[in-house]
Amino acid sequence: MASFFWIIGSTIVISAISLVGIFFLSLNAKHLEKYLLSFVALASGALLGGAFLHLLPEAVEKLNADSVFLWTLISLLAFFVIEKIFQWRHCHKEHCEIHTFGYMTLFGDGVHNFIDGLIIAAAFVESTSLGLVVSLGVILHEIPQEIGDFSTLLLAGFNKKKALLMNFLVALTAVGGGIVGFFLASYSDQFINILIPFAAGGFIYIAASDLIPEIRKETKTKESIRTLAFFLLGIVLMYLMKFVE
């Protein structure tokens, strides 16, 4: 039962990150870009570190290698399809109604957050240390994502209070995913065995498809060194998490 409270606590913390836009509203564009890129680099390293240092080794202990690689590949394809389905959320103002892409952003985030909750639940049911690793990876990824989503809602015509409220309510779907995931994981061990490599595939896809391309855009030497340092820091953090009992 302890894992249930870890799941609820972690998903609530992750949902609260949707309020991070309050802090970044006070920053000018130059400082915002600097902080965002550092967070993106940190999240990239943490997600890859979580996948290759924790999730995949754990999955290999539960399933045969062929099954692990298959479910990882299925996850990569699934995240690609999900992203393509909700790609209309990135449409430009001249190509769609401004409120439409705002609500599509919220709907897409709801699906994404619910999946995060499922993954976190399966990880905590397996072990507290694995749950903490997955939660940390999700948290680091959510910070730049939520800032971007908050900015998107403002562009879509929401006022600041409504954007924060709607973003927070949608973020709470992670808690729902965590609860559903807990009962599914408690009912079937196979659910955990499948979802761990699925989570690894998701981490790899998000890092390789969404985050790393952003930090590759940086061409200035000083800033490139900084982003590389944060990227490596993310990997080191995940390596140190291997010693968390």
Automatic annotation (TrEMBL):
Coiled coil: none annotated. It holds the Pfam family Zip. Keywords: Membrane, Transmembrane, Transmembrane helix. One of its GO terms (cellular component) is membrane. It is a multi-pass membrane protein. GO terms for molecular function: zinc ion transmembrane transporter activity. This is ZIP family metal transporter. InterPro entries: ZIP. The chain crosses the membrane at residues 6-28, 35-56, 68-86, 164-185, 191-212, 224-241. It comes from Candidatus Falkowbacteria bacterium RIFOXYA2_FULL_38_12. PANTHER family: ZINC TRANSPORTER SLC39A7 HISTIDINE-RICH MEMBRANE PROTEIN KE4, ZINC TRANSPORTER ZIP13. It is found in: Membrane. Its main location: membrane. One of its GO terms (biological process) is intracellular zinc ion homeostasis.
